[in-house]
């Protein structure tokens, strides 16, 4: 009896071990396949050889009907948009998404594709990058995903239309959260939209007309409020510059080097007066860029005046202090990270650089947003022209220092294949996690990353034949 029980126990144990080995044998290749990175060459070769801008990997959640809808929208698009639909969780993390899109962009560049937009669908999650419409691609992906209500095809068609609107220069419509456009991606609205409006009107479209008017008034009111807020910020900057000019009046009159000092003094005065005059004429936030450009010039001229009256060398022409443009030109770069964000190099005035290096908070320029004070670089897209005027004349400075901020998604630099300004490329690379990836969202709903991985720039080249 004992021998029989031992024999049975041994058989059962052997069967159990065999089963475990079989499971390991089958599970390991599956895990390896799941962890394998998508093949860039396979994707680009498919786009090129099949003349089909939608690559669909086995295991992608796209149905055949959804694939057909997306292909139709891509074929009608006025701009080149290349889509790689992958199985869910094909991309390990945001960094892997960045590497994949960079590789696809480089490959398309080598094929002479000119300007284009790349989209990667990791299951229902969308990542996008564009050298055609700049960093707006991430925002458009967010908007399309939000409007899709779980329908990947509808979300992709909405994204394609928004890209075309942005490419046509209709940036406001492309970035309008309340705007969802039809599947006719070729015209950015066009005849199909007009017909739809007429049909709705004939079917009782008076209500729609009134609703549209209401939305337009709300949008105009929102834009007017944004303009008023940013204008107040700029007006404070102008007042501050005027006060500093006045404080130096006596020292300038007593300066030994009158000719050079007076020339810089006059430049500061002229820039101050120009900023005041241009601010009075501003009707839209985009026009504020020229005002802050004048303020940047005036502050540098004033820094030169201070140096001359104090018998010091004239300062180098550097971007304004990132923490507060009112501080005037920066003196050096300092390693800094926003709360919860990644470190990056930013230009800083001497006082703020010392504070940061000693472990203290810099004196950051804050503005009022919905009753709360926020740093200007996280105050919304209305402040993009404000920042651009101060920093736009210094190459790719903004690309690195604004990564992961709200303004970061609105201001483009290069496509990301090298060429950032010295001292700022490290901030860009290390700000990837802070930026939230390539922007976009999830067509399955929720889980937004925001993000700022798309960028502007120009690949050069053109269309060398074919339409793939």
Structural features, described:
Keywords: Membrane, Signal, Transmembrane, Transmembrane helix. There is one protein chain. This protein has 468 residues and is an alpha/beta fold. Among the domains are: 148 residues, Diaminopimelate Epimerase, Chain A, domain 1; 92 residues, no CATH class. The chain has a four-stranded mixed sheet with strand order 1-2-3-4, with helices on both faces. Strands 5-6 form a two-stranded antiparallel sheet. It has a two-stranded antiparallel ribbon with strand order 7-8. Helix 3 runs parallel beside helix 6, helix 9 packs antiparallel against helix 11 and helix 9 packs parallel to helix 12. The radius of gyration is 28 Å and the shape is globular.
């Amino acid at each position: 009896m004992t021998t029989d029980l031992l024999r049975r126990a041994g058989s059962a144990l052997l069967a159990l071990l065999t089963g475990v080995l079989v499971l390991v044998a089958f599970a390991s290749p599956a895990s390896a396949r799941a962890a394998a990175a998508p093949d860039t060459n396979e994707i680009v070769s498919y786009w090129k050889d099949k003349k089909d801008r939608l690559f669909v990997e086995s295991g992608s959640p796209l149905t055949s009907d959804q694939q057909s809808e997306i292909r139709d929208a891509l074929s009608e698009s006025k701009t080149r948009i290349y889509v790689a639909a992958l199985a869910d969780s094909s991309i390990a993390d945001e960094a892997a998404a960045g590497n994949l899109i960079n590789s696809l962009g480089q490959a398309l560049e080598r094929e002479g594709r000119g300007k284009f937009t790349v989209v990667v669908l990791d299951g229902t999650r969308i990542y996008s990058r564009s050298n055609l419409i700049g960093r707006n691609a991430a925002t458009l992906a967010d908007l399309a995903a939000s409007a899709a209500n779980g329908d990947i095809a509808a979300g992709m068609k909405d994204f394609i239309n928004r890209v075309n609107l942005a490419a046509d220069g209709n940036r406001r419509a492309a970035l309008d959260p309340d705007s969802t456009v039809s599947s006719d991606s070729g015209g950015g609205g066009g005849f199909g939209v007009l017909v739809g409006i007429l049909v709705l009107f004939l079917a009782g479209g008076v209500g729609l007309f009134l609703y549209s008017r209401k939305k337009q008034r709300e949008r105009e009111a929102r834009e007017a409020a944004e303009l008023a807020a940013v204008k107040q910020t700029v007006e404070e900057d102008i007042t501050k510059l005027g006060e500093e000019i006045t404080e130096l009046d006596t020292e300038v009159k007593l300066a030994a080097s009158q000719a050079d000092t007076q020339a810089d003094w006059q430049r500061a005065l002229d820039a101050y007066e120009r900023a005041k005059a241009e601010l009075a004429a501003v009707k839209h936030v985009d026009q504020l860029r020229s005002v802050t450009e004048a303020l940047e010039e005036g502050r540098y001229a004033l820094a030169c005046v201070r140096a001359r009256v104090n018998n010091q060398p004239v300062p180098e022409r550097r971007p304004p202090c990132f923490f507060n443009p009112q501080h005037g030109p920066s003196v050096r770069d300092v390693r800094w990270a926003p709360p919860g964000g990644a470190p990056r190099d930013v230009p800083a005035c001497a006082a703020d650089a010392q504070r940061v290096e000693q472990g203290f908070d810099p004196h950051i320029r804050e503005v009022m947003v919905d009753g709360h004070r926020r740093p200007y670089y996280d105050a919304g897209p209305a402040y993009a022209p404000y920042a651009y005027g101060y920093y736009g004349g210094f190459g790719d400075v903004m690309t690195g220092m604004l990564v992961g901020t709200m303004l970061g998604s609105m201001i483009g630099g290069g496509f990301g294949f090298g060429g950032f300004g010295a001292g700022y490329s490290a901030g860009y690379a290390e700000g990837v996690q802070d930026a939230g990836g390539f922007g976009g969202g999830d067509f399955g709903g929720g889980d937004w990353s925001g993000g700022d991985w798309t960028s502007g720039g120009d690949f050069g080249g053109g269309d060398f034949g074919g339409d793939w």
